[in-house]
Amino acid sequence: MSQTSAGPSEQKLAEQAQAALAAVHDGKMVEAGAERVSDGIHTEPTLSEGKTYRLNLVCFGSGSASLTLAPESKETPVPCDQSVIQQRITADKPVRIDVNGTKGSSGVIAWQIDAI
Length: 116
Hints:
The protein is built from one helix and six strands; from the N terminus they run αββββββ. The chain has 116 residues and is α+β, with helices and mostly antiparallel strands. The longest helix has 19 residues, at 6-24.
């Protein structure tokens, strides 16, 4: 059985992205994962009202993505250059996290939410 060249490379990118997040991990992990840039991240984490959290995001690949946190709806660019983006979240209302890759972007986005 042969594997396509995309499979192992995405797996390797995911491992590298998760290692980058582990390096900045601080607090108690609430939720984490990794997705293809083309699939994006769409999650509504269960957060305790009134608590503060830190969202860590990193993209390994090419191009960029865009992070939108609701209810604020503020858009933050996420370059696919292996730099970790950190965003503070205060859970006063239900939170929705959406990260969408820009056209032509590829690679893996990993995220982690820590209670701080």
